[in-house]
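Example 3.2
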Amino acid sequence: MWQFGRFFMTASFVLPALIGVILSSVTTSVRADDWPQFLGPDRNGISQETGLIDEWPAGGPKELWRVKGGVGMSGVAVQGDTASTLIQTDGQQRVLALNAKTGQTKWSVPVATAYANGQGDGPRGTPAIVGGVVFVFTGDGTLARLKLSDGTIEWSHNVLKRHGGRVADYGMACSPLVVGDTVVVTAGATNGTVVACDSKTGEPRWTSGKGEAAGYSSPAVLTISGWTQIVAFKGASVSGIDLKSGDPLWRYPYSTDYDCNIATPVLVGGNVLISAGENHGSTLLKIGSKGQNFNVEKVWESTGGGSVLRSEWQTAIQLGDYLYAFDNVGSAGPVTHLVCIEAATGKPVWSKTRFGKGNMIAADGKLFATTMKGELVIIKATPDGYEEIGRREVIGTTRQAPALASGRLYLRDGAEIVCLDVRRK
């Protein structure tokens, strides 16, 4: 058991009424059929939409539109009639806003100069749309707030320059997390591993941790043992952080070669699942609290070359009692399996061997996956075995997971953005 010391939160911060206010502010103006941030409405890769296709149409799902985009690994966020992503073109990292139904460009605004990296150029983080504003975090560490209506930049600053530090080896990959009136990113800066800014002004609110590499994961808001907190998976550890003050609540070491902790932490039966590639593996953590102390225990662990789950850049999805995920074999190796495992125990259920590297989301009892070959693959989410509904090559090489809003599936690569109709006819 890992034991960790005190945090300094007053009791008023944990009153249920205040927690309700915080959570309601996170979801303000988010409709059930929006995809307003990285990994969707609840930041877990799951949409509550229903009425989606059960059979593969002749030729695949209907293409509604296809438009030119730009270089980058940013996903698509959707709120109402606006879809937004980050692209790199003409020597600039730009925020692009499209009409979600037609693909017509609403606006395109530069927020930073071009970012180059041997593992892929351009921005990595997915925008977060809250109400009438969009927040972005670029490959070089620029955090900005823009009006969703016309792209006006309301504030912008480079987090690394403000707090000291350098760009991560493979670029800044965190997608902004908006919590009430703060916006949070994992920065890995000298004076702040995790940084929170006032969402209206951009001014610093708090920092948490110092001197730890950022890694490439995006933080999430999780309620653990009755405490609603930010959980951040950094280059060498995962930790819980107080929403208001940034005070550390608990920490669990988790070192990976090249600081490649990338997947977002997810709740599994009230426990926290972390997983990493580079042949590392997965661990399910039980976080308990007694008064003002937290303790961390391993529920199950599967690490090393024989691990059942090594998430390279994909976040595992829990549906019912099972986890569906990509298991990447070796140190950034080319072999990747699609797996189903028991969430509570880590016991393997089935594996589609050599499925290929990709990413996915879930909705309506199905997995919507993309592969690095540019294929869209739709799979039934069932523990009974791998059952593919259909597949078709749609785009070029991609690492982004799809986005789903109002029955429309949004995909992108380093050149184009595509919208497909996946509604059941």
